[in-house]
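Researcher: Please generate the 3D structure of the following complex. Treat every line as part of one assembly.
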Amino acid sequence: MTKRQKRLTLVVGVLAGLVIATALILNAFRDSMVFFVTPSEVMAMTELPERKFRIGGLVESGSVVRADDSAKVSFRVTDTARSVVVTYDGILPDLFREGQGVVAEGWIDTEGTFHADKVLARHDEEYMPAEAQAAIERAGHPPGAGQEY
Amino acid sequence: MLRRIAFPLVGVLVILGLLYVGLGIDSRALPSPLVGKPAPAFQLESFYDPEEIVTEADFIGEVALVNVWASWCSSCRSEKPYLMELARQGVTIHGFNYRDTRADARRYLSAEMNPYDKIAFDPNGEAGMEWGVYATPETYVLDAGGTIRYKHIGPLTPRIIREEVLPLIEKLEAENR
Amino acid sequence: MIAELGNFALILAFCLAISQGVLPLVGARTGNERLMATGRSLAVGQLVFLAFSYAALTWAFVASDFSVEYVARNSNLALPTQYKVTAVWGGHEGSLLLWVLLLAAWGVAVAVFSKALPRKMLARVMGVLGIVSTGFLAFTVLTSNPFNRLARVPADGVDLNPLLQDPGMIAHPPLLYMGYVGMSVVFAFAIAALLSGRLDAAWARWSRPWTTVAWCFLTLGVGVGSWWAYYELGWGGWWFWDPVENASFMPWLTATALLHSLAVTEKRGGFKVWTVMLAILTFALTILGAFIVRSGVITSVHSFAADPDRGVFLLSMLAATLLGSLALYAWRAPRVGLGGGFGWYSRESLLLGNNVLLVVACAAVFVGTLYPLALDALGLSKISVGPPYFDAVFMPLMMPMLFLVGVGPLIAWKQADPVETSKQLRWVFLVSILIGIAWPFAMGLWKPLTALGLGLAAWILLTAAVDTRNRMMRRRSQGVGSMLGALRPSFLGMHLAHAGLALVVVAISMVNSYEVERDVRLAPGDTATAGGYEFTMLGVGGVRGPNYDADQATIEVTRNGKPVATLTPQRRYYDSQSDMPMHQASLHRRPTRDLYVSLGERLSGDAWLVRLYYKPYMFWMWVGGLMMAFGGFLAAADRRYRLARERSTVVAEERPAATGRSAGQEVG
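Model: Done. Output below.
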């Protein structure tokens, strides 16, 4: 093969790879992108989303209820304005705590109950999941309001 | 020569730019509607002595920090050394002991590691509601007249203390003189 | 006092690093032999001072000197001594000190083992290493000094994060940093070669063993991290596509591509530009990794506390690396030749395919990790892309790559014959398909993706066996000794690493398809089943550890009524943070399955939440990872890399089928 051909091989190979990769990535993104919604936005929904989504906020104090005979648990997630009832079947993360930030991923039923198949709380010393933080911000505490020295 | 690297160069610059913008996202800046308003009223037992009653009036009178903490809160633990340092520098720090038990909290505040002047014991989070506490730790700066001038959610870091808290306290104390 | 001495040594090391970044390069530029020779002694000096500095910090931990802020935050009196020693790298500042220490150690290793390098080349390598070292030391001294004192000394420290009080954590960061830092050496070779304008086979041969060793450490680091996540952190998960995990995985992918691309550059003189780009990219990704973990730009399970100042510094380093390298490339690249030609079907073309797939996989991980950040930064929306994205992208990319792993080693350089290959491998191909079809049936449930994974794993193992056999049979007439002699360490190392990959693929396929996970409520006497095993809760009792109290459940495992094991998962409450319970899982490990039990929280009465796992072939993952790393070490130990003897041995390594120029000629 001449140098020119070799160069062509390289270019074609790399281009083909890139095209396939782009297609794969876009496709995968479309299928697995999980949007983040605040409890207030959930309550304002008029139709149920078909896809899974995430809600975030604070675990409302005193709202955690455990089932007696199974690993099921339910609690309310609030953005300080509205709250959503979340149910989960399984072991909650170590740092799940009332009054602390939490993010749940799952789907919502017609009754307005959110069925989580994943519950995330911070694992380290950090304070609050970014998404939980955002939920509170969006619920009527817009950035920059009222802050002065 | 430049043409050879034009494509990667653009990519690199875009990525670096995005990362730089990403750095600027301060997800912890959460302003409170209470800033600029007087400290909300409350009436609670003193943490040290159940007989004694602490109200907002006890927190007012000089420029002070009010810190909401709990023994179960690991972030509070991480900011405690910095509070100690502030207290050593002569800053008055009051506290709300939030949704806690006295026994646990006493262990948390071993004698030589207590930065707080007055502590209101708030096992049910009553005052917390009034003060708009989302979660622990939270820190407020009160001016001498009892107006909330600043609020920080989450643990204090040396940087926040250096760049925000201390300058503000100095400014407020200067106003007071 | 000791801490001040440590700080002083750190600053001295910083000064030495600056000199090392300047003097040898100036020497190489002006041809001044004495300046060129300074690189070696400066590297040794740096190592000595950093070792002293590191020892000083360790002493501060062992002696519980809480006047040092870093010690006060990451240790306390009750911490067992072995964890006091490892707590040195438990936080940001100390782990950075370990990083620069290891970097200095690699620098000295280069100085010691590269005596046969041309002096100018060595001087440039040492100079570039000096610059890298300067960057990281400046970062340490200016933004993250571990020796800062507290004005008021606390009576006791905070504690080492209990998650880090674990043997897996002792090994994970040093191994990972060894890999990261090793990539600096590879980067230094690449930049030195660009500076000299000589991107040739000799450069490839010099940097190849360093790349391989760095890759091995990176592999071990990633593997041990996954293992740690599996039993300590993750409730049984072993990979989460967490940004921090991705931060270590991205350089691993490009380093793997680099290993293979270097083979082409060394043996055939091809892919030079590509190889040098990969070396630079890999190094840049290690800095990006540091940025992701240490700047707080991405919040993650195990990122260090956020500090934008550090982020800006690391970002500047990243920018300097990338822009500097690009500029150097633009300046020097016209002098770089293209290398030998090759056919459509040749080892080169397959290695090219492997490279493209690996780099594309890396790009996919990159996009998945940073795209949500980009959207957030631009204020568009908050999204997350979880494991489904990565699985969906990774699977289709890895399948063809695994197929190539099987074929690549068997075919000739330059031009091979597809017909001959298919003749040679048709039985292996058929047997692999059969295994792929039959094995899932044996597991009880047939799934196409599992079959594909297992078939590909079998394909890699069988082709490796065929290649080994062929190589030995060629020397059949010369006796058994000669037949074994044909299996050179580099050859065995390659196949060992590939076989390790096959085992990992088996483990992933099996776990993804046949894992059983159950969260159940168990009171004493209750039984739950998972994966054909019965788990009976006998009771929960209290246990006292060195610095924690624990609830310990005793769970008896039986299979069809016959006893298998007694497992004792714990829920630990460390004294320093009794509010934050930690789980200690209990495992029963057999070659074809792990049983894994974690104790959750207490429910009403004496019932507890318990997580039960049946994890088929999990063990193969760790064995496979070890085999990959060990294979790499074996290949790096190959005699032909010892430069003193390079010419006589390299030619013998060439395959008879390869008719192109031998690598030995390319050196000249």
